[in-house]
Design a protein that fits this description.
The complex is a heterodimer of chains A (289) and B (417). Chain A is 74% helix and 1% strand. By secondary structure, chain A is an all-alpha fold. The longest helix of chain A is centred in the N-terminal third of the chain and has 36 residues. Chain B is of the alpha/beta class and 417 residues long. Chain B folds into two domains: 141 residues, D-Maltodextrin-Binding Protein, domain 2, CATH 3.40.190; 201 residues, D-Maltodextrin-Binding Protein, domain 2 (3-Layer(aba) Sandwich), CATH 3.40.190. The chains are: A mainly alpha (289), B alpha/beta (417). At the A-B interface, loops of A face helix 3 and helix 18 of B.
Chain lengths: 289, 417
């Protein structure tokens, strides 16, 4: 018996090692190294120079850091509620026990499997000012073309639009899985008591999805704060840097201007913001239970 | 039994490998290189390398077929690990990011040994690759900002020749808009795939035409918040806001497409689009050097250079092979000129092959008026910041004083750091 346990322990260690090695090499180590780097002045080719908290101090006085962080926040505020609500509405369609419900679920989820570059390029073409589909439709109705991506009034909203199409399907999957777990009896008895569709939605479905909603909100907030790829491909941060988000500035600072220490410091600041907001939400969700 | 067979086989393979290895000394020397050319240029460059490989049997140039999205990121990482290829293509304005870190080999000794006559090069582009008296790269081309114009639209609007002053430029652009309905000047002023770099390149050229560099002599401060800067900015802003000969919100790709499709009279861009304009059926155009809008000629220009990374173990044979390659490539610059670029070597320009290329003669002398970007590792960031700032001010129709002092503040902050 003891002999056998030893084998089990060995197997556990072996099987998890293959994952843990990758996990440590490509996640844990880079994170720790990033924190370490944030206290240095380093351009990859030079020798590292320890400068204490200077990188962090610089960030707070750097108008470009503050502006790009503000753009990220703008994206978070616009995208988080819309993507969650649309994901929820899609889930309501997808959970219908009909064939069309199943088809809808697949169709809504499909965009999510596409890569950032594909989504960005696709929507950049749809939004293109002179030849894009949307402006061609506008032209059909005799309307003037809109600079979806080149007009500062619309550029950020256009990026949010593309992101909704791309990622709402993921939230839908989480919501629909949770809705399917709500026992039918609850709905049946509610119906017996004369509850209408709206009442069952607001009094049963939404309250019972509270845990899932909390999870979705946290995941979506983290995803939105990390926005970069689709914005970079669609607008390049333009017009005049009005859609330049924080991660783009971090990327540019690190890999175009080769200031690895400062770039690390800025990403750690972003990490702290995400950590604080998620922690706050988590506590809030627990307390109201 | 089976395992014995395996062992025997392994031994056999090992011996075979060793004898093959012994033969490599007779085989041609293999030189690894990376280049950053994508799209139009890339095909011409690959064809040249192929021709070089076929022209002799001592050296074989090998490259990764992958075209890097982030060439300089990968290159920097490779340089740091000292496993960069034997020779790399690098923009001249990036040299100052690398030379001070000692990752590139000074080339003077090997040039002398290989017998490359540097006096056959245009001296401007060569001296821009010199740091503390040592040559760290050999320029393959210069690619200046030039002016393209649609000769059909010019004829239709009754304009006999290319504009050579600011007043003429505006008047011609207005005539084109009025008489043909086409865009007067297609020059990008909005970020999309690229930042509005043409705006910056024109601004820098206009400053230089008035004798000013974008940054001060030791690259510690902005040098454009003055009368020359005000004139240059005003000219750019007026094209968009006052005379409305350049559309608002025009990005780089659209500006190229507009000219390519014959929907724009004048187009400002680097020489690298010449090749693709030539392939456009029905487009009749001419290409000339950037006009002297403020008296004298000057045009922003980039330059592709060859540089030799420092290796873990130094192999002089390889470096000399690289010299042979560079010598061949620069001597055959007329092949490279097919992509639109201007060769840096007189021995390539003074050839019937180069002279028979259409359009190039119109701007070949632009080389004489080119100037290098400021020599500071902070230049890439300044370049981006100037582009964003000009784009914003032109879009919002700011007056020159506000525009320039905003931009000066941003640039000085970057340089002071």
């Amino acid at each position: 018996m003891q002999h056998r346990n030893r084998y089990v322990a060995r197997d556990i260690a072996l099987f998890s090692a293959s994952y843990l090695i990758v996990y440590f090499a490509f996640l844990v180590f880079p994170v720790i190294y990033g924190i370490y780097l944030s206290f240095f002045d380093w351009n990859i080719l030079s020798t590292k120079k320890f400068i204490g908290f200077k990188n962090f101090v610089e960030a707070f006085g750097d108008p470009k850091f503050l502006a790009s962080f503000a753009h990220t926040c703008q994206f978070v505020l616009l995208s988080t509620p819309t993507i969650i609500i649309i994901g929820f509405l899609l889930a309501l369609i997808a959970v219908r026990p009909t064939k069309s419900g199943k088809v809808a679920e697949t169709v809504f989820f499909l965009p999510y499997i596409l890569s950032t570059t594909v989504v960005g390029t696709l929507w950049a073409w749809l939004f293109q000012k002179n030849f894009g589909l949307f402006n061609q439709i506008l032209a059909q109705f005799g309307l003037k073309p809109i600079g979806w991506l080149t007009d500062p009034r619309y550029a950020m909203a256009s990026i949010v639009g593309a992101t909704i199409w791309w990622t709402a399907g993921f939230n839908m999957i989480l919501f629909s899985a949770a809705i399917k777990q709500i026992p039918d009896e609850i709905y049946d008895s509610a119906r017996m008591d004369g509850a209408g569709r709206f009442a069952t939605l607001t009094k049963i479905t939404i309250p019972l999805l509270k845990d899932t909603t909390l999870l979705v909100v946290i995941l979506q907030l983290i995803a939105s704060f990390k926005v970069f790829g689709q914005a970079y491909v669609m607008t390049g941060g333009g017009p005049y840097a009005t859609t330049e988000v924080l991660v783009q500035y971090v990327y540019k600072t690190g890999f175009s201007y080769f200031r690895l220490g400062y770039a690390s410091a800025m990403s750690i600041l972003l990490f702290m913001v995400i950590l604080i907001i998620s922690g706050f939400q988590f506590i809030l969700g627990k307390e109201s239970k | 039994m089976k395992s014995r067979n395996l062992v025997l086989m392994a031994v056999f393979i090992l011996i075979a490998g060793m004898t093959l290895g012994a033969q490599t000394s007779q085989k041609p020397i293999e030189i690894g290189f990376w280049s950053l050319f994508t799209g139009g240029d890339g095909a011409f460059f690959d064809a040249m390398v192929k021709e070089f490989n076929a022209s002799q049997n001592e050296i074989v140039m090998k490259t990764d077929t992958v075209k890097f999205d982030n060439y300089y990121t990968k290159l920097t990482a490779a340089l740091a690990a000292k496993n960069a290829p034997d020779v790399v293509v690098m923009h001249q304005d990036r040299l100052s990011n690398f030379v001070p870190n000692g990752v590139l080999l000074p080339l003077d000794d090997y040039i002398k040994k290989a017998g490359i006559d540097m006096s056959t090069f245009e001296q401007g582009p060569v001296s821009n690759c010199r740091f503390d008296g040592k040559l760290y790269a050999i320029p393959m081309d210069v690619h200046p900002l030039i002016m393209y114009y649609n000769t059909d639209l010019f004829a239709k609007a009754g304009i006999p020749k290319a504009p050579v002053s600011l007043a003429e430029l505006i008047a011609d652009a207005q005539a084109i808009q009025e008489k043909t309905g086409a865009i007067g000047i297609a020059a990008d002023n909005t970020t999309a795939t690229y930042k509005a770099y043409t705006l910056t390149r024109m601004f820098m050229s206009m400053l230089k035409e008035q004798g000013y560099s974008t940054l001060n002599a030791n690259n510690t401060k902005a040098n454009f918040n003055n009368d020359a800067g005000a004139k240059a900015y005003q000219a750019l802003s007026d094209m968009v806001n006052k005379y409305k000969v350049t559309p608002k919100q025009l990005d780089y790709d659209s500006s190229v497409a507009d000219f390519k499709l014959g929907k724009a009279g004048i187009h400002f861009n680097g020489v690298w689009v010449t090749g693709s304009f030539e392939q456009q059926a029905g487009l009749n155009f001419a290409a000339v050097k950037f006009p002297a809008l403020f008296g004298t000629n000057a045009s922003w220009s980039g330059s592709h250079t060859f540089a030799v990374p420092v290796q873990k173990t130094f192999d002089e044979k390889k470096v000399m092979a690289v010299m042979t390659f560079i010598n061949w490539m620069t001597n055959h610059g007329y092949l490279w000129a097919k992509a639109g670029h201007v060769p840096t070597r007189k021995t390539a320009i003074d050839t019937p092959e180069f002279k028979s290329l259409p359009h190039r003669a119109g701007y070949a002398d632009a080389v004489k008026y080119t100037f290098a970007s400021p020599d500071t590792p902070k230049w890439p960031q300044c370049y981006d910041a100037i582009s964003d700032s000009l784009e914003e001010s032109v879009a919002l129709n700011r007056d020159a004083k506000t525009a320039l002092s905003n931009m000066e503040q941003v640039i000085n902050a970057i340089l002071a750091r």
